[in-house]
Each structure stands twice: as structure tokens, then as C-alpha cells.
Amino acid sequence: MKKLFKTYYKAKISFWNAFSTEWNAIKNDKAVISTFFSVAILILVVYTYIYSNQVVKEVPVAVVNQDVSKMSRDYTAMLNATEGTKVISTYTDLQEAKVAYYSRKVQGIVIIPKDFEKNIRSGKQTNITTFSDASNMIFYKKVLGDVSVINGYYSAGIAIKRQMAKGISSDQAKQNYTPIQAISTSLFNTSAGYATYMIPMLTALIVQLVLLMGIGILGGSRREDKSTHKNFPRLLHKGGTIPVLLAKACLYTAIFIVIIPIQIGIVYTLFSIPVRSSLFAVYLFLVPYIFSVVFLGIAFSSFFKRREDSILFLVLLSIPSLMLSGLSFPKEGFSGIYQLISTIIPSTPGITGFVKLTQMEASFVEVLNEWNHLWLLTFLYFIIASIALKMKSQNEKYNKRKVSY
User: What are the φ/ψ torsions at residue 169 (nearest 5 degrees)?
Assistant: First the structure.
């Protein structure tokens, strides 16, 4: 019992020593301070502000009206009345519209063919041709979507008028045209806004990137000064890495207990991004996420020879993290090997669980799979970090002895 108490006492002293040492290192390093607070908050504010309009409106479109009839003018007016597109020019020549398009004055071209009204009145099918730049998916989707909607409304109006001309009432004609009425409801992201979709994912990803950068800078500094074994003297003792690693993880968790409310409490409120979960549930979910990222950062920072190496590491890791997180492309569309790689990056389950909690109004039980996944990664990276940290301390002590000889 006495031996157990002694072990506990030494671990407790080591924990608080590591906690205070790490905190002092953060406070005294301007690069780390700016990384944790300025970058974490400013990046999110800047990105959220950029996408604060949420939905793209009034995309400029050129209409090439080759028919110049009343029906073609009515069609143009309907297109101009949509929220998403704005007809800024009407041409009779396609070449003029192309000049406007290639000079970026318009983002799409809609061609109303010759004999548009004549074909409609005679019951013949007519085609509306649309050109839009697929390299910009937001403009492309908006132009094609609005044109498709207008085509549907315009066709419906023609069909209903023909039935009414036969003596059928307006209500009956509408029912005959649409026997099944579709009701579409957007779940969670009711405004279909891009910021509401992207910013929660980006918030969880920023937590990982900022942590890795800050830990990498500190690790690189200690590698340059060969001060790891001095700052954490009990690392070389049996079981000495456990309190040190736990102290570091608890410190960084405490830091983000301050940062997270600023991000989801102030930034989200300013830009009308909903939060559908309690702060306590978010905190509880983020504990294994932060722990796993901290241990991952410590494991890799043990190999950094300079502070600048952490920036290079971040650049190399940030792109795969972004791509494999599901932010730009659904994870289900990846091949098997990439899906496997994504499972060992903390941001993958971290983003999924964070979005479920804050945006989908999920209960904590519904994110248990992601939570357990993060605890598994925490355990895995804890072992790797323990080995890497102990080897780093041993190498520093051995090299110091070698130099003194």
C-alpha cells in the first residue's frame, strides 16, 4: 500500500510539473500563442465571413433570344424573376454572348431557339440550350437549376392552358398535370446555405490543424535545445511518460474549453449558423478528439529537428485530412485503401460526430460510434507517443554524455 501511494505521489508531482512546464512554454512562445488563439479564431471568422451570404444569388446570365416573340420575352422575364439568376443582357447573336461570357461578365448563356413560339403553338417540342462553366460548381448548379425550374413551370403553364381551352376548369387542369405533388423539405440545413454546410466541418478540422501546429513548434524547439529530458525529468523513469502525456492532453483540452465557446458561441451566432446541441455534449465529445490529436502531434513532433518542420508537416497532413474528412467529397466514394487511411486520422470521426451533434440535433448516444472510434485512436497514438517521447529523451541524454566525454 505504501509503495502504491508513493507511486501515485510521484505521478501526481510529475503530472503537475509537466502541466506547468508545457503551459509556460506556450505562454512564452509567441508563435504558439498566435497559433492557438489568433489562428484558431481568425481563420474561422474569415472563412465564415467569406461564405456568410450562404446562398449564391443573382448569377449573371446572358440570354440569346433568337425568336424575339412574346413567348420568348415571357420566358426571359420568368428567368429574370428567379432568385438565383439575373439576366443582365439579351442578345440575338450567340457570338456576342460568348464575348460577354469569356470576359466573365456573365456566368452562363441561355439560348431561346428560332420559332420558339411557333413550335409551342403547333404542339411541337422545342429545346432551350444552356451553357454554364462546370469548373465552378456553385454557379453551374445555380444556372442549370434555375433554368430547369423555369422550363418546368413554363411547360406546366402551357399544358394547363391547353386543357382549359378544352373547357376544363383551372383546378382540374392543374390536378391532371400533376397527379402526384412532391413536397421537398431540406433537413437540418434548411436554407441550403454553403456556410452552414462547411463551417461546422471546418471548425472540427481547425482544432486538429492548430493543435498539430502548436505541438510541432514546441517539439521542434525542444529538439533544437535538446531540452525534453530536462523539462520532463521523469520521462526516463518506469511509467514516467504516462503522467507527462496526460498532463499535456489535459492542458490542451483546457485551452480549447476556452476557444470552442468563442467559435460556436460567438462566431456561429454572428453569422446565423445554428447549434443544435448543448455545450456540455460538445465538450464531452471533443475530449477523446483532442486527446488523440495531442498524442498524434507528440508522436510526430518527436521527429522534428527544427520548429519549421512542424509547418511542413502540417502542410503535408492538412490536404489529406481535408480530402479524407468528407468535406469536399463523400467518404463513401473513396476506394477501400483511402477509406482505411481516413479511419486513422482523428479528424474523420471528429468531423462526423461534431456535425451530427451541432447540426443534426443528434443525441450523444447517436455519436457513440465516433466517440468510441476516437478513444481507440487515443489509445493507439498514446502508445506511439509514449515510445517516441521516451526514445527522444534517451537520445538526448545519450548525446549529452557523448559530448561531455
Answer: -65, 160
**Cβ-based neighbours of 122, under 8 Å, separated by 6 or more:** none
Cα–Cα distance measured from residue 358 to residue 207, given in angstroms and rounded to the nearest whole number: 15
Question: How far is 397 from 133, CA to CA, in rounded Å?
Answer: 61
Query: Which residues have C-beta within 8 Å of that of residue 288, sequence separation ≥ 6?
Result: 371, 374, 375, 377, 378
* Cα torsion angle, 105, 110, 111, 112, sign: negative
Q: What is the pLDDT along the chain (405 residues), one digit of tens a residue?
A: 666 666 666 777 778 887 888 788 788 877 778 777 776 777 777 777 776 666 677 788 888 888 878 888 888 888 888 777 777 777 777 888 888 888 878 888 888 888 888 887 877 878 888 888 776 767 777 777 788 777 777 777 777 677 766 677 666 656 655 555 556 666 676 666 666 777 788 888 888 888 888 887 777 666 665 655 565 656 666 666 788 888 888 888 888 888 888 777 777 777 777 888 888 888 889 899 989 988 888 887 777 666 666 667 766 777 777 777 776 677 777 787 888 888 888 888 888 888 888 888 888 888 999 999 999 999 999 998 888 877 776 665 555 554 444
Task: Centre a 10 Å sphere on the Cβ of residue 384 and count the other Cβ atoms it contains.
Answer: 15
**Residue 36 Rama label (left phi>0; alpha psi -120 to 50; beta):** alpha
325 near 342, Cβ under 8 Å? yes
Contact 247, 16 (CB under 8 A): yes
Sheet holding 108-112, edge to edge: 85-91, 59-65, 108-112, 129-132
In sequence order, the β-bridge partners of residue 61 are 87, 108
Cell numbers describing residue 320: 489529406
> Cβ–Cβ contacts within 10 Å for residue 366, how many?
13
* DSSP letter assigned to residue 347: H
| CB burial readout 292-331, b (16+ within 10 A) else e | bbbbbbbbbbbebeebebbbebbeebbeebbebbbbeeeb
For 116, the grid coordinates are: 420558339
Report the SS3 class of residue 91: strand
In contact, 208 and 202? CB cutoff 8 Å: no
Q: Is the pTM of this model over 0.85?
A: no
| DSSP state, residue 180 | S
